[in-house]
Amino acid sequence: MTPTPEAACHELLLRLADRLPDELLWRLRDWLAAGGRPALAATLPRELLRNRIGLGDDEMELLGACAGAWGASPRLLDSILPLVGTPAIPAFDAAADSPVDAAALAVLAVVRDHPGVTRLQQTWRAGPQGRQRIVTVRGGDQPWVLTATVQRILRSYGDRTPCVEVLPPHGEPSPYHRAAIIGSTTLWRAPAPEQASV
Amino acid sequence: MDGPTYESTHQLLLGLAGHVDDDLLSWVRELVAVGEEARAVSLVTADVVAERIRLPAPVRTALADAGRAARAGIDPVELAPAAEPAVEHRFAASPAGADDVASAVRALPARQLQGAAVHLTWRLTPAGTAPGPLPHPVVILEIDPARHSGEMLSYLVASGLARGGVHASVEVVAAGHEQPPYQRAALAAAVPVAVGDSVESGAPTVESSVIAEPVTEAVPTVTPESIPASAAVTEPVRVVQVIPHPDTEPAEAVAHDDETGYAVEHGYAVEHDEPEAIEHDELGDIADEDPAVDEPEPVLDPSEPHPFADVRTDRPRRRPVAGGPALSALSDPLSGPLSEPLMAPLLDPTIHAHDPLGVDHLVGPSRHTLAAVDTEEPEAQETEEPEQAPAEEPDPVAEAASEPTPEPELLPEDSWAAEWESGAWAMPLDDVESAPAAEPVDEPDADGSEPEPPARHGLDQHDEPPAMAPEPPRQLRAPRPTPMQPNRRDERPEQHEPPAPRAPEPRPAARPEPARLSDADRELLARLQAELVQGRKPRRSGAPTGGRPGSNGRGPNRRDNPPEAG
Q1: Per-residue pLDDT tens digits for B439-474
Q2: CB–CB of A66/B83 below 8 Å?
Q3: CATH (domain of A98)
Q4: A191: distance to nearest CA of chain B, Å?
Q5: Which of A195, B157, B375, B512 is at 20 to 30 A from A157, Cα to Cα?
Q6: A22 half-sphere exposure, CB direction, 13 A CA radius
Q7: Is the domain of A74 the same as that of A120?
Q8: Does residue A194 fall inside a structural domain?
Q9: One domain for residues A73 and A97
């Protein structure tokens, strides 16, 4: 099934976690939810080039499916670097001893009612500017919309570069997301669907 | 032309303030400051397009023009139609919930902000589609556009504040010109802030040190007549902050064309200072505050050229003081960029028997300068105290100090190094007395008359472990020029070779040979000496720095396989 351009862009932006700088990546995800197609078509390929980010073959397909569909010139798309090597996986800290803070509570309030969400997790990634909160959501319809909402909540609480990863409910996450999930605390899990009585 | 213009990129970004979120605006201003203007315009255009932000007509037009000029790749037709913003921004000078940003602003280096009036306010309303927490600090700088670059100053101040953990917006406006409504409203609710040291010795007025009090009596001190008629905006003027009288209407500020007149109106003390005064004052203040400066300088004879003088004679010689590490770093010639002559002997492949490391020209009688390099290390502090020690004997020291320049590699070096290699300085008291063999014989009070061992001496001063000193303090008491002892010369190359154990390792009291250091200790001392010369911290493990390039960090005469430290 050919993904819609939005879904392809969402998937691509997921994979660019920790490869594109956070302050750019959250904006691109925000633009996606706002419907900024021309903005993404113009900015995403250029910023990939500027930041010297290489893309694998499947990621190139995703890029063509979204930015290409939205008007990015083929020449610009062709100049994207190929992916070389695997990016290093950072360290994640679950901070299981710390209480869930107000920002996480606000995120939880929104996430649990979003259709299709099965799990909400949170972890902290160590970085040069201190630690960065990583929110991981499994499931969710129109995940890019949920991403943008959760990002704005975190921004209002002072997170200047929110990292919100809304992953599909099934399937194998990327090594980065796998590491993030392993290093996360679960804030909420959807109740199992009730057994239909026969 | 009525109304503010948005022709330049700087003015365009001013016009976008409040419409896009603060972080994007800061980022874009930084990009413009560092020369990535096209990328900046592309990013901000993309954000405006994607979020369908409605801009006022003149701003929208300017953005479209800029996007076309920068080839942003976005068709300007994509811009949402112009509209006035739905809600106007509101500002307050000190709302509830505001953090202490004023201190961070005051702590900015004043040199960059010469001639700029600095104000601080807080925005109460959100900006952009993903706004940050409120109230949001906004720093406004009124400048003379001929003197400052708007984007550069904004970036400098914003990054300076960000380093201190404060993320504020920095709006740089041209004094006397009409400003966009956002900045106008912000200024109307702003309080001025004095930047730089609160006590500036060049300041003719005292109000600069009084930040918090309402200094109503300061207002009459500045009269319009006292301001020279030529006080045009282009003159370097530092407006010292005086908290305006509560009755003063800050809204009047924007109506003034003349920066000086504005200052006078609001009771600011306007000074015409030389820009250089600030830096000297800051350093001078620090130096003057240190009480230890009062003692006579026993080691550096002013009539004698400084040991580093062959490098830069015009360098201001500040008195090194034991105590604050920062001060020592100031006084250390090696804290600045090393110039060639200083390093030349080190890099010289010629191996001198008496000075295999090539560092003799650097370790003159004034040990304190060498010690001042490594202020964080206990060794450095240890070696600084020799300066106080020779207070007992200023004359021989000065006499000795007058010697070395003609042949810096020879005599004082020997006496010093001889004592150093003897290791007597690092031993407990009883061992010191029994270590005459290594001492140069004409140090009168070398052995017997010492009130305390040099290692302990260091303890009194700094509470450091006794074995830290790589350079024995005792030499300074009597660094007489001793005749070269040929056998000592030969020994010296050897002592530099074995690598030392880790720096903080204390010298054990029990020694096989009281008169000699162990190989490992000698190596440590040599390494530390070399590293101090290099101006770097001694490594805790691994190869030391310094020495000839290609020598793998060892001195020119090091053995190839030194025993590694544990």
Answers
A1: 444 444 444 444 444 444 444 444 444 444 444 444
A2: no
A3: 3.30.300
A4: 31
A5: B157
A6: 18
A7: no
A8: no
A9: no
- Is B133 in CB contact (< 8 Å) with chain A? yes
Cα B250 to chain centroid, rounded: 36
Reading the block at residue A89, the tokens are 């996986």
| Burial of residue B536 (number of CB atoms within 10 Å: 0-12, 13-18, 19+) | middle
Task: Answer yes or no: is A198 within a domain.
Answer: no
Cα(B398)–Cα(B393) distance, integer angstroms:
9
Residues 6+ apart with CB under 8 A from B240: B194, B203, B205, B207, B208, B268, B269, B270, B271
The more confident residue out of B364 and B527 is B527
* B132 → closest Cβ in A34, A38, A156: A156
| Domain count for chain A | 2
- Using alpha carbons, select from B85, B72, B66 the residue that is nearest to residue B46: B72
Q: Are residues A35 and A108 in the same domain?
A: no
In sequence order, which residues have a C-beta less than 8 Å from that of residue B267 and are 6 or more positions away? B218, B219, B222, B242, B244, B245, B248
A76 plus A105 within the same structural domain: no
Partners of A92 in the beta sheet?
A: A125
The predicted structure's pLDDT at residue B121: 95
Quote the minimal CA–CA distance from B131 to chain A in Å: 6
Q: Whole-number mean pLDDT of chain A?
A: 92
Say if residues B437 and B412 touch (Cβ distance below 8 Å): no
In whole angstroms, give the CA distance from residue B145 to residue B7: 14
Within 8 A by CB and 6+ apart from A73, the residues are: none
Residue B211's identity, in one-letter code, is: I
Residues A75 and A115 in one domain: no
Angle between helices B486-495 and B411-422 (to 10 degrees): 60
A130 within some domain: yes
Domain co-membership, A135 together with A169: yes
Residue pair B41/B70 in contact (Cβ under 8 Å)? The answer is: yes
Which residues of chain A have a CB within 8 Å of the CB of B167? Answer: 160
Judge contact between B194 and B106, C-beta under 8 A: yes
Looking at residue B509, its amino acid is: A
pLDDT band at B123 (very low <50, low <70, confident <90, very high): very high
pTM, to two decimals: 0.56
Domain match, A73 and A140 both? no
| B131–A39 C-beta distance less than 8 A | no
Point out the residue among A50, A151, A158 whose CB comes nearest to the CB of B133.
Answer: A158
Which residues make Cβ contacts (< 8 Å) with residue B216, sequence separation at least 6?
B245
Long-range interactions of A152-156: CB distance < 8 A, separation 24+: A152/A30, A152/B129, A152/B130, A153/A103, A153/A106, A153/A107, A153/A110, A154/A103, A154/A107, A155/B21, A155/B130, A155/B131, A155/B132, A156/B130, A156/B131, A156/B132, A156/B133
Q: Which residues of B touch A46 (CB under 8 A)?
A: 39, 42, 73
Quick one: A97 and A174 in the same domain?
A: yes
* Residue range(s) defining the domain that contains residue A176: 92-189
Last residue of a domain, one of A33, A54, A82: A82
The alpha carbon of residue B541 and the mean position of all alpha carbons in its chain are separated, in whole angstroms, by: 28
The answer to whether residue B49 neighbours chain A at the CB level (below 8 Å) is yes
In DSSP terms, which residues pair with B141 in a beta bridge? B118, B172
Neighbours of A158 (CB within 10 A): 10
Q: Which of A2-11, B94-103, B550-559 has the lowest mean pLDDT?
A: B550-559
Note whether A39 contacts B72, CB cutoff 8 Å.
no
Question: In chain A, what residues touch B24 (CB-CB under 8 Å)?
Answer: 27
Question: Who's near A105: CB < 8 A, 6+ residues apart?
Answer: none
* Contacting residues for B462 by C-beta, under 8 A, at least 6 apart: B322, B378, B381, B382, B384, B385
B73 Cβ under 8 Å from any chain A Cβ: yes
Where does a domain end: A60, A82, A104?
A82
Q: Which residues of A touch B130 (CB under 8 A)?
A: 30, 151-152, 155-156
Is residue A70, in this structure, part of any structural domain at all?
yes
